[in-house]
Amino acid sequence: MDPSKNSPLSRLFGHSPFKALREHIREVDKSADLLREYFDATAAGDWTQAEALHERISACEHEADDLKDKIRLNLPTSLFLPISRSDLLVLIEAQDKIVNKVKDISGLMTGRRMEFPPSVQRPISDYMQTSIEAVHQARKVLEELDELLDSGFGRDVSEMIEDMVTELGRLEKRADNEQIAIRHRLLELESELPPLEVMFIYRVIDWIGTLSDRAERVGSRLQILMAR
């Protein structure tokens, strides 16, 4: 029996390094779904539920960090991979930044018990949903990687991945446009709101957009990988 098959690295990666990437992106994706629930709880003024959801988001972030550290610590430079070691590490880092920002959003909103003005509540909810959909799309792209590799980067699968990455870019662009519209609405409300509160609202709006930006970056890294 080959002892390497029972090593921690073998159990982590299985037959493909993308097994570990998929496990990680699923924790990231789970945190994004929890953020949707979190936002709904805050909109309803249910801070007990919101705080519980923030704790669950934090647990996802810790689990994602553990997976990231296992990959980094157990990935020798001599390991044969269908992609380079550096590409794998860049991908895992891009994914990890998404869950970190999800935790930042729920943490800031929980700490300040933030509530958005009624007139922008729905636009911000829609904007958040777009960014969450971008995270879902990034997960779907990663989950197709094994099929892509099995096909030897065949044309049909490669084109399918390209289409999925294109959709990811479309979602990121939609989030950008929604952010611009929300900023315009907030500009009209600034004189009616406490200046410090306005500052933190803008910060959360920026961070929500960061989710779609970072999800799109995962897709961009995949495009670079496919081009090599």
UniProtKB/TrEMBL annotation:
TM region(s), chain numbering: none
Organism: Salinisphaera shabanensis E1L3A
SUPFAM superfamilies: PhoU-like
Protein name from the UniProt record: Phosphate transport regulator protein
Family, as annotated: Belongs to the UPF0111 family.
Family annotation (InterPro entries): DUF47, PhoU-like_sf, Put_Phosphate_transp_reg
NCBIfam families in UniProt: TIGR00153 family protein
Domain of life: Bacteria
Pfam families in UniProt: PhoU_div
